[in-house]
Design a protein that fits this description.
- The protein has 294 residues and is α/β, with parallel strands linked by helices.
- It has a single domain, classed as Luciferase-like domain (TIM Barrel), CATH 3.20.20.
- The chain is 42% helix and 16% strand.
- The chain has an 8-stranded parallel sheet. Strands 5-6 form a two-stranded antiparallel sheet.
- Helix 3 crosses helix 5, helix 5 runs parallel beside helix 6 and helix 6 crosses helix 7.
- The radius of gyration is 19 Å and the shape is globular.
């Protein structure tokens, strides 16, 4: 397996110079990718705008986002993503998620929580058509149009789309529709079990997922990061928090190695608290983790 380590920038906003230094350091230190989350009501850069800037600063670093799919116009989104893939020279990594289950985020999306699954089922296949076909007709429950063509097309053909989520319906949806899986807040044993469900669903749908296309997004800490840590603890009261949120680089590496043992090879590691110095943080992570990429 080809292990790859990407860095999630976390919940913060940055000036152009700050983001430029971050992506420059990531490329210099040989991390695989920068990842930006998609959060409307919390302090974080817009991922499409931020990644477009990042793509222009460096030439090799991949750019990735865990983007909320529900609540977006699919034609506009198809064009934005295709454009970003082209301006980055085909360096875009794309994972769609359902969004943080917070009342403010759901209201900002304008989508009922119960409707998100059906929207993904409709929109993801539609995006694939818009990225590859001309004059697309579509008649779905949420969107209807005739003869729509999106240009430019993505540079990557096909453009792989991964999904997040680890509830049973999300696992089956990943098997039916996606090219890979990037969950968070699940133990290595749960990740292995989820992969089995995905592969069964893919087989039943007459398709397969590349065995290299399984990854984990890991939020890590350095000591106590309350109240953020408290919120995470309430999400998984059935598991020791150290099993999901490692404390320090050594514990983070140990957890990554356990995921590798069950067949996962792509990782996005995210500091739960903004580092005092991103450069120092990245150097520590590079020393502790990047030999895994060899």
């Amino acid at each position: 397996m080809k292990v790859r380590i990407g860095i999630g920038a976390g919940l913060h906003s940055s000036s152009g110079s700050e983001l430029g230094r971050l992506v420059g350091d990531l490329e210099e230190l040989h991390f695989d990718s920068l990842w930006l989350a998609d959060l409307l009501s919390l302090p974080a850069d817009d991922p499409l705008t931020g990644l477009a800037y990042a793509a222009g600063v460096v030439s090799r670093l991949k750019i990735g986002t865990t983007m909320v799919l529900p609540g977006r116009n699919p034609v506009r989104l198809a064009k934005q993503i295709a454009t970003l893939d082209r301006v980055s020279g085909g360096r875009l990594l794309l994972t769609f998620v359902f969004g943080v289950r917070l009342p403010t985020e759901l209201m900002a999306m304008g989508v009922d929580a119960a409707a998100r699954g059906a929207l993904v089922d409709e929109v993801l296949p539609l995006l694939r058509r818009l990225w590859t076909e001309d004059s697309v007709d579509h008649a779905g429950d949420a969107y209807r149009f005739d003869g729509v063509t999106v240009e430019p097309k993505p540079l990557q053909q096909p453009l792989d789309v991964w999904l997040g989520g680890n509830v049973p319906s999300s696992l089956r949806r990943t098997g039916r529709l996606a090219d890979g899986w990037l969950p968070s807040m699940c133990t290595p044993a749960e990740a292995a079990a989820g992969r089995r469900v995905i592969e069964q669903a893919a087989d039943e749908a007459g398709r397969s997922i590349d065995p290299e296309h399984y990854g984990i997004s890991i939020g890590y800490r350095r000591g106590d990061v309350s109240p953020r840590l408290g919120r995470l603890a309430t999400r998984r009261t059935d598991v020791e928090l150290a099993e999901l949120v490692p404390d320090g680089t050594v514990a983070l590496r140990t957890l990554i190695e356990r995921y590798v043992e069950v067949g996962f090879s792509k990782f996005v590691v995210r500091p739960l608290a903004a580092p005092g110095s991103w450069r120092d943080e990245l150097e520590d992570l590079a020393d502790g983790l990047l030999d895994l990429q060899a």
